[in-house]
Amino acid sequence: MVLVVEKVGDFMSLVSKYANRTYIVYQLENSDGKVEVRVVAGRIALEACLDANSQEYKKLMEWLQKNSAIKIKYAIPEELFFTR
Q1: C-alpha dihedral over 45, 48, 51, 52, to 10 degrees?
Q2: Contact by Cβ (8 Å): 24, 64
Q3: Smallest Cα–Cα separation from 9: which of 51, 63, 49?
Q4: Which of 28, 72, 76, 80 is the most buried (most CB within 10 A)?
Q5: Would you give the DSSP letter of residue 81?
Q6: What digits encode the pLDDT tens for the residues 44-65?
Q7: What is the Cα–Cα distance from 11 to 38, expressed in whole angstroms?
Q8: Where are the alpha helices (DSSP H) in 1-84?
Q9: Sign of the CA dihedral 13, 19, 23, 25?
Q10: Gap between the Cα atoms of 69 and 39, Å rounded
Q11: Contact criterion met (CB below 8 Å) for 42 and 22
Q12: Residues linked to residue 44 through DSSP beta bridges, in sequence order
């Protein structure tokens, strides 16, 4: 179970306290100039729809890069991974 926050600033503030001790993974989905962003770090998660040109999006992407976040292509149950 993860705790999902709505605001980018809240997420970065919470996770910054232990970002160097956990994996940070994220997924991006583009749609009509907006980017749906999902980020998980430990038990804290962010789910947000941001404008691709917004300062908030740029700030989040810089933060993810600074904290060596790993971009996820997609999620699939382990038992289905080799059945494709």
Answers
A1: 30
A2: yes
A3: 63
A4: 28
A5: G
A6: 999 999 999 999 999 999 999 9
A7: 11
A8: 8-16, 55-66
A9: positive
A10: 9
A11: yes
A12: 3, 41
Burial of 38 (0-12, 13-18, 19+ CB in 10 A): middle
Please identify which residue in the block is written with the tokens 């060596």.
68
Question: Where do the domains of the chain lie, and which CATH numbers do they carry?
Answer: 3-83 (3.30.420.10)
Q: Could you report the per-residue pLDDT of 2-41, keeping only the tens digit for each? A: 999 999 999 999 999 888 899 999 999 998 889 999 999 9
Tokens for 83, please give them. 């059945």
Look up tokens 């997924």; give the residue: 27
Supply φ then ψ for residue 75, to 5 degrees.
Answer: -115, 145
Residue written as token pair 């907006």: 34
Any residues with CB less than 8 A from the CB of 28 and at least 6 apart, and which? 35, 36, 37, 71
pTM greater than 0.85 (yes/no): yes
Pairing of strands 44-51, 34-41: antiparallel
